[in-house]
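INFO  loader      accepted 1 record
INFO  loader      residues=257
INFO  predictor   begin
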Amino acid sequence: MSARAAAILVPCLLWTLACGGSEAVPKRWACEVVRSYPHDRDAFTQGLFFIDGQLFEGTGLNGRSSIRQVNLETGEVVRRFAMPDEYFGEGIAPWQNALVQLTWQNRTGFVYDRASFRLTGRFSYNGEGWGLTANGKELVMSDGSAYLRFLNPVTFSETRRVAVVDGDQPVRYLNELEYVKGEVWANVWQTESVARINPESGRVTGWIDCGGLLTPEERQSGVDVFNGIAYDAAGDRIFVTGKNWPKLYEVKVVPAK
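INFO  predictor   done
INFO  writer      dumping tokens
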């Protein structure tokens, strides 16, 4: 290597090490409300997805857990399957013609026919179940830690896991998940932030601030945490809500000011 090449290369290497490359500093985004829709105040939202023009929601708490098909415009529950009282429902995701659902500490997942909500199967996993989404090849699961777990959608065995980091810091409490244009978006429990995650590296490429969606009056009326992201791929729309929130919001993600 020539002295001139070294003089150019060394500063570049030092800059890369110091800054961690192009992914080291996540971009900042904000939620801009496009429209709001009614949302069932009794829905302790644990999972949300939108497919084929239909909105599906999974709710939690023992004795109140369910899967639902919901009318987006009115918030009316079109179809509902109530889980047995001993199960605490968690994340849901579509896979082909099925709906897959996790439970919190029961270590049991359920598979339903999405058109009828008929139970067609169940599976087991280690640890807790929190969020669930699908990337077209695998199911992607969170468990409240800083890891994403990838599952074979036929056998439900874990094929790999990825540590989620912002810079060199682990991002814990990953909750409800959604797969959006090649990224995994994750609610972070007890915050109103969504992490945009590279599913191969686990690096957070951006943060979406969804604070300020609720009014002060709504916050004082028994709402729980921000939780629930659904992507309408056909219409390129993002929907978000929270546990026991009075509204579901269609939002546009814009650069933070």
